[in-house]
């Protein structure tokens, strides 16, 4: 599944912040600050952290979400929320079609523009093949963060604390999170959603594996002369994917992955020249292109945590895995983390068990292991295969695209797994009918 996504990072404490041990509050101030207790503490108030806070609060748990909620800084970025993610957001009361101004992704197209000897016709997926009106919906990140923050602020049982979390201490029965104002909160379970520079992950001693790519992703929003017909189109080039994803009206979001020198040249172009460059790369598919607002750019990298859990701590979203903006997986993968963790916690809570216990967290880690590994491996393999012109690699990639284009069972399997993986499916991402959120069903884990 190759609709593009530009994922939004959760907020983390600034790099210049003094290390926790060096910023201990004066003794008299520390003694006057009581520790607040909750069932669950979520560290991070980006999209994943806010969604996690709402999911647990809707299940009847008391939750604190820690971190300042701010609009994403990178310009021109959008998120392609796939069907399973939309169902999850509906289930927690965080999907607002009017406020989000989303565009449906009714078709997904892959066009091979590598110049390979193995010329493959365009591969086009239709949502109607799965009896869906759309594979998902593309929304601007600023709108998504605003809606999530608004809904979170009005969710009963969810307390938003705008401070930064700076340290973590784990006991036998509870974990305590220290905030930058000297106060602290404690809970049976801490959910780390504080992004790729996570302090909670570091405090727990969880190591990460990182891979850097010699590529830059340029992001932008453009208007164009022709209708996109609700089709997301991904051109495979030797430098990486070039993807245009629909937005409302005759507008599309762009993620252009290219070599570092090419990215520098594109960034140096004025707005008109950049629009012409996009039109050429898109083979004039949408006619003349006009840049709206500013362009963004960031280097491509991949990060995976060695493990998803530690005593009374669970990692979700970019704290656990950072993916290049390829294949519409980044934020969608993080929302599946939240949905799976909620399933494990709610089941334990109903049974009167300690939902922060090792056995509960082990279930979460086990349920997410396969999905994460498959997504990380597939995106890494696909991206690296585009950057080589070795005939055997081109042949294998061409054969895979041909199978997707012509073998119906493979097409349908790829589409289903891209939207809502069938291995260990989170209940809220699979079983809640679109636009039919039933709070009683949600609280009963249905």
TrEMBL record:
InterPro entries: FAD-bd (IPR002938), FAD/NAD-bd_sf (IPR036188), UbiH/COQ6 (IPR010971), UbiH/COQ6_monooxygenase (IPR051205). Residues 1-13 have a biased composition (Basic and acidic residues). Belongs to the UbiH/COQ6 family. This is 2-octaprenyl-6-methoxyphenol hydroxylase. Its cofactor is FAD. PANTHER family: UBIQUINONE BIOSYNTHESIS MONOOXYGENASE COQ6, MITOCHONDRIAL (PTHR43876:SF7). Residues 39-369 form the FAD-binding domain. Keywords: FAD, Flavoprotein, Monooxygenase, Oxidoreductase. GO terms for biological process: ubiquinone biosynthetic process. GO terms for molecular function: FAD binding; monooxygenase activity; oxidoreductase activity, acting on paired donors, with incorporation or reduction of molecular oxygen. Residues 1-30 are annotated as: Disordered. Pathway: Cofactor biosynthesis; ubiquinone biosynthesis.
């Amino acid at each position: 599944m190759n609709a593009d996504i530009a994922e939004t990072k959760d907020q983390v404490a600034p790099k210049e912040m003094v290390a926790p041990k060096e910023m201990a509050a004066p003794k008299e101030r520390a003694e006057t600050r009581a520790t607040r207790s909750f069932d669950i503490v979520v560290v991070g108030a980006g999209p994943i952290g806010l969604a996690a806070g709402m999911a647990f609060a809707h299940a009847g748990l008391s939750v604190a979400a820690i971190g300042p909620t701010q609009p994403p800084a990178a310009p021109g970025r959008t998120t392609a929320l796939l069907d399973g993610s939309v169902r999850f957001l509906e289930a927690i009361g965080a999907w607002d079609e009017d406020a989000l101004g989303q565009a449906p992704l009714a078709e997904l197209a892959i066009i091979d523009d590598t110049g390979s000897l193995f010329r493959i016709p365009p591969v086009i997926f239709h949502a109607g093949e799965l009896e869906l009106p759309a594979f998902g919906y593309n929304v601007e990140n600023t709108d998504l963060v605003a809606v999530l923050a608004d809904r979170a602020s009005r969710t009963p049982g969810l307390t938003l604390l705008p401070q930064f979390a700076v340290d973590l201490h784990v006991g036998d029965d509870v974990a305590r999170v220290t905030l930058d104002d000297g106060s602290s909160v404690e809970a049976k379970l801490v959910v780390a959603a504080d992004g790729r520079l996570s302090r909670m992950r570091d405090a727990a001693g969880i190591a990460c594996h990182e891979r850097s790519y010699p590529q830059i992703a340029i992001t932008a929003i453009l208007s164009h002369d022709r209708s996109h017909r609700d089709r997301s189109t991904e051109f495979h080039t030797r430098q990486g994917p070039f993807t245009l994803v629909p937005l409302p009206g005759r507008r599309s979001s762009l993620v252009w992955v290219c070599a570092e020198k090419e990215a520098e040249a594109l960034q140096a172009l004025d707005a008109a020249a950049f629009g012409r460059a996009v039109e050429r790369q898109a083979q004039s598919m949408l006619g003349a292109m006009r840049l709206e607002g500013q362009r963004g750019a960031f280097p491509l990298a991949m990060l995976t945590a060695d493990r998803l859990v530690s005593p009374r701590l669970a990692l979700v979203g970019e704290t656990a895995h950072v993916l290049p903006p390829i294949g519409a997986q980044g934020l969608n993968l993080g929302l599946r983390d939240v949905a799976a963790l909620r399933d494990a916690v709610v089941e334990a809570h109903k049974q009167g068990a300690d939902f922060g216990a090792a056995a509960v967290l082990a279930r979460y880690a086990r349920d997410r292991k396969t999905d994460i590994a498959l997504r990380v491996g597939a995106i890494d393999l696909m991206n690296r295969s585009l950057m080589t012109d070795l005939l055997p690699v081109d042949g294998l990639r061409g054969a895979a695209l041909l199978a997707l284009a012509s073998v119906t069972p493979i097409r349908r399997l790829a589409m289903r797994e891209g939207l809502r993986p069938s291995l260990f499916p989170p209940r809220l991402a699979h079983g809640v009918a679109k636009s039919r959120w039933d709070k009683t069903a949600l609280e009963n884990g249905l």
